[in-house]
């Protein structure tokens, strides 16, 4: 899972820089950075963390991240392959975040919370980093969420205009 995330993040960053996908780099960095904090900083480095064994938190992360990526990459494949993108795929691409982003935020925050005691004991400098990084989740989340709301409005309105 970690290698896959690193691989996907690297290519998505490259695709964004080359202009193959319209994802803004700050948005991409926020999403990738948050996932890497969880995957490498907790799941990999501290496998005994209680968060790794909390079924609801881990299942929520997996669900939110996986569904988000399936929708996004499915949309990109259709679009980059010059296929007609069905409206329901377009709608999912620009609407699923209403549920998936908050689910990801809650589960990522819970993962850090449940792991914090172990992290503070084993990696004090990382716990200090998390102490200052976690409050940035809120403005980061608000930035991503408001960006997606604007994108949704723009794209779905443009699609409505085509139908008229």
UniProtKB/TrEMBL annotation:
Primary localisation category: endoplasmic reticulum
Highest taxon in the source lineage: Eukaryota
GO molecular function: very-long-chain (3R)-3-hydroxyacyl-CoA dehydratase activity
InterPro entries: Tyr_Pase-like_PTPLA (IPR007482)
Its EC number(s): 4.2.1.134
The keyword Chloroplast is assigned to this record: no
Residues that span the membrane, as ranges: 53-78, 90-114, 129-148
GO biological process, one term: fatty acid elongation
Reaction catalysed by this enzyme: a very-long-chain (3R)-3-hydroxyacyl-CoA = a very-long-chain (2E)-enoyl-CoA + H2O
Keywords linked to the UniProt accession: Endoplasmic reticulum, Fatty acid biosynthesis, Fatty acid metabolism, Lipid biosynthesis, Lipid metabolism, Lyase, Membrane, Transmembrane, Transmembrane helix
Pfam families, A to Z: PTPLA
Membrane topology: Multi-pass membrane protein
Pathway where this protein functions: Lipid metabolism; fatty acid biosynthesis
Entry's Gene Ontology cellular component terms: endoplasmic reticulum membrane
Location relative to the cell: Endoplasmic reticulum membrane; Membrane
PANTHER family (UniProt xref): VERY-LONG-CHAIN (3R)-3-HYDROXYACYL-COA DEHYDRATASE
Entry function: Catalyzes the third of the four reactions of the long-chain fatty acids elongation cycle. This endoplasmic reticulum-bound enzymatic process, allows the addition of two carbons to the chain of long- and very long-chain fatty acids/VLCFAs per cycle. This enzyme catalyzes the dehydration of the 3-hydroxyacyl-CoA intermediate into trans-2,3-enoyl-CoA, within each cycle of fatty acid elongation. Thereby, it participates to the production of VLCFAs of different chain lengths that are involved in multiple biological processes as precursors of membrane lipids and lipid mediators.
Family listed: Belongs to the very long-chain fatty acids dehydratase HACD family.
Protein name, UniProt field: Very-long-chain (3R)-3-hydroxyacyl-CoA dehydratase
């Amino acid at each position: 899972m970690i290698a896959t995330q690193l691989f996907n993040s690297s290519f998505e960053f490259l695709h964004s820089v080359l202009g193959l996908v319209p994802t803004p780099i700050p948005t991409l960095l926020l999403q990738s950075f948050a996932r890497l904090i969880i995957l490498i900083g907790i799941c990999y480095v501290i496998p005994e963390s209680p968060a790794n064994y909390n079924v609801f938190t881990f299942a929520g992360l997996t669900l939110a991240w996986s569904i988000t990526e399936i929708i996004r990459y499915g949309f990109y494949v259709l679009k980059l392959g010059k296929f007609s993108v069905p409206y329901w795929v377009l709608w999912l691409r620009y609407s699923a975040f209403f549920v998936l982003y908050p689910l990801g935020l809650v589960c990522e925050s819970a993962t850090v919370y449940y792991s914090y005691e172990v992290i503070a004991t084993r990696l004090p400098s990382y716990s200090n980093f998390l102490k200052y990084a976690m409050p940035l989740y809120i403005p980061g989340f608000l930035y991503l969420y408001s960006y997606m709301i604007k994108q949704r409005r723009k794209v779905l309105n443009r699609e409505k205009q085509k139908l008229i």
